[in-house]
Amino acid sequence: MITVGIHNTGTTSSACIMQGGDVVFAAAEERFNRNKLWKYFPGTAIDRGLDMLGLDLNSVDTVAIAWNPAQNIAGRFRAGFSEWPGYAGARLYTTPSQILSSLTAKPETITQQRVSLEGGKQIAFDFVDHHLAHAALSFFPSPFEEAAILIVDGYGERASTVFATGHGTDIKVIGRELFPNSIGSFYSAITQHLGFRPDQDEWKVMGAAAYGDPAPYRDAMRRLIVLEENGGYRIDLNLFAHFDFDTPSMLSHAGQALLGTLRSADGEMEQRHYDIAAAAQERIEEVLFHLLHWLKAKTGLDNLCLGGGVIMNSVFNGRAASEGPFRELYVPFAPDDSGNAIGAALDSARRKGAPADTLRRPLDSYLGASYSEADIASRLKRYGITARKLQEPALDGAQCIAAGKTVGWFQGRMEFGQRALGNRSILADPRHPEMRDKINATVKFRESFRPFAPAMAEEAVADFFDLPGKITSPFMERVFRVRPDKHKAIPAVVHADGSGRLQTVSADSNPLFHQLISAFGAETGIPVVLNTSFNTAGEPIVESPDDALRTFYTSGLDTLILGNYLIEK
Question: pTM score > 0.85 for this model?
Fold first, then answer.
């Protein structure tokens, strides 16, 4: 059984291939066409995945799409438009639409179409509820037999927040908040007001928050989004315009007046902008904790799975893990919409009766393509590039980093998701405070306030971070406080508020990257490296050796380790 999972509703379209119940490939389309956040059909990603497996589209049995348009059809009519006759091609979908609009099934129910091919084979098209796709990726790969599930984003077909429970292979929705009531839209509106791109640059707001004081704008944020006693929330629609898709601003004039003059995209970041960011971050954490406490009281469960674009907020994730009402927490490597390609495939398999030992397998993020030594050697020869062959790339990489060099690190299968986790990374020495500014200015070409992640050997975490119990962060998905006595040891990866977005690396999850970190630790006494994604501002993370070489030669990187080859300028 071959299933293709697709996300192409919203930014960062993606595809996955599931073979015999295993997710064997997943990638975002942007990695291949080099258009960051590409939102259209992920045709190249599908082709590359099938080609890697020696298959083609004729091999596919099911296509699972992470959006169920039946929900948007049912009960919705626009006067003046609903009676217009369609053009001839519209007959391909008008009859199904008429039927779907009359369905009384619950919104989470899948919608399915079947197409018969010449020879009798059928392909099933499963349209999966957007938030159930999120829930599937957040729960099924988790280590929990049962868990509460919270999905929070801008919006899906109708909902913006979904409460659910997972048990074994079953997911049950127990509550929803509907759009335009939306935590994600609240944070995106603040992102836009601060001169950044909504639905794209929210992590810039999270990074800027560390430099601000929330007090001046605390009351304004509490007016924008209000808590309700039943565990819900409401945004003041008099202050927002995000639900009117014909207006350029997500805040109304009254909402803009509440926060002051908008910052232009190229305007200077003033202290008031940092204060707005800090107040928004504080408020979103307050709202999310409000939801968590309600969900805990409602379910009585000890474990929590999180998903949705808002859960890319790693500051909240860290607090939820260390201070939240649940004992254990799981966040997948791609809680944003791109992960829904995998979630849709998993939910489709669930509905077809996939057994628990198939559906509940752990997943790591290394799901993209890899390139052989011969592939890399042929490219070096084609471009006339001189490179040194390495016997131990991890050891050589550690020595380069210890010598103060910035290193492009390209190894194995590409990570899926928006964070580089040691296979398509830029690495550097965290001991030098000037390293952060150097990489932001001369390598990444991005804002000076943007922080970098500490990637460290899992066994050394307690020496550097204040954590309750044994908490890991394998997907760089959580921010924790760095121990005060370690700030001077790793200043390049300690944010302005004393925190760090932690990536814990084990010998099992990524042996080569763990070996590099351990070798760096053996040489310096610090088993931590600065890790950021291998790309420059506005570019997707590199996918191929060609991408890596181009980025290396058009940035301030000192060294590139491409598989077993070392290239220097």
Answer: yes
What are φ and ψ of residue 198, in 5° steps? -65, 150
Q: How far is CA 518 from the centre of its chain?
A: 27
Residue 10 — pLDDT band, cuts 50, 70, 90?
confident
* 112-361-29 Cα angle (round to 5): 60
CA atoms of 396 and 497, how far apart (whole Å): 33
Spatial separation of the C-alpha atoms in residues 58 and 49, rounded to whole Å: 14
Mean pLDDT of the chain: 92
Strand partners, 306: 150
Mind listing the pLDDT tens digit for each residue in 415-435? 999 999 999 999 999 999 999
Q: Of 530, 520, 565, 525, nearest to 545 (Cα)?
A: 565
Residue whose entry in the numeric block shows the structure tokens 């044994």? 470
User: Of 101, 108, 54, which is closest to residue 74 (Cα–Cα)?
Assistant: 101
Could you read off the pLDDT of 478-520 as tens digits, one per residue?
999 999 999 999 999 999 999 999 999 999 999 999 999 999 9
Distances (CA, A) of 16 to 116, 141, 355: 23, 15, 20
Query: Could you tell me where the DSSP H helices lie in 194-270?
Result: 202-208, 218-224, 253-259
Unique residue bearing structure tokens 């639900």: 243
Amino acid at 169: T
Using DSSP, state whether 227 is helix, strand or coil. Answer: strand
Contact 5, 130 (CB under 8 A): no
Supply the DSSP symbol for 442.
I
What whole-number distance in Å separates Cα of residue 21 and Cα of residue 354? 7
Lowest mean pLDDT among 18-22, 49-53, 393-397: 18-22
Q: What is the distance between the alpha carbons of residues 301 and 290, in angstroms, rounded to a whole number?
A: 16
